[in-house]
Amino acid sequence: MWGNSEQWTPQTRCETVSKKFQEAYKNGSLQKYIAHGMENNQPVVCTAYEKGGDCVTTLMTLRPEDNPTRMAKKVSNSLYGRAEGPPPIHSGDQSKQYYQIDFEKFLKLTPVE
């Protein structure tokens, strides 16, 4: 169940989500679609190889009150450099949506530090 604890500090969550993004990049699913689904009866943002396909890699588990559609859109926008502020915290329309990612273009446009 989603919740805050000493085990899940912001640092721990960041490291866990970063590893999941790396896994999705390595298996090629991050370059396809950002979607949302359910895992262990909890909403998640995930990757999919095709529109309408199953989740391949879970990127992050959401709180029950989060809107999975909106969160998937925010993740997609962030990957394109169009962040829209903090993640949503209220639920709403939860019809399944898919957002295609041109990850190669993202990598080309991302400044090297």
Q: How is the topology of this model organized?
A:
Layout lengths: L9 H17 L6 E7 L2 E7 L8 E5 L6 H12 L19 E2 L2 H7 L4
Antiparallel strand pairs: 1-2, 1-4, 2-3
- Helix fraction by DSSP (H/I, runs of at least 4): 25-40%
Count of individual beta strands? 4
Q: What would you report as the Rg, rounded to the nearest angstrom?
A: 14 Å
Spatially, the strands of the biggest sheet line up as 3-2-1-4
Share of residues in strands? 15-25%
How many separate domains make up the residues? Answer: 1
The major beta sheet can be summarized as:
4 strands, antiparallel
**What is the N-to-C succession of helices and strands?**
HEEEHEH
What is the terminal-to-terminal distance? 37 Å
Query: By helix and strand content, what is the structural category?
Result: alpha+beta
Number of helices: 3
Shape: globular
What is the mean predicted local confidence, pLDDT? Answer: 78
Q: Ranges with pLDDT <50 over ≥5 residues?
A: 87-94
Structural notes for this entry:
This protein has helices at 10-26, 68-79, 103-109; strands spanning 33-39, 42-48, 57-61, 99-100. With 113 residues, the chain is α+β, with helices and mostly antiparallel strands. The protein has one domain (10-109). It has a four-stranded antiparallel β-sheet. A hairpin with a 2-residue loop joins β1 (33-39) and β2. It is globular and about 35 Å long. The relative contact order is 0.17. Residues 87-94 have low confidence and may be disordered.
Quick take:
With 113 residues, the chain is α+β, with helices and mostly antiparallel strands. The chain is 32% helix and 19% strand. It has one domain (10-109).
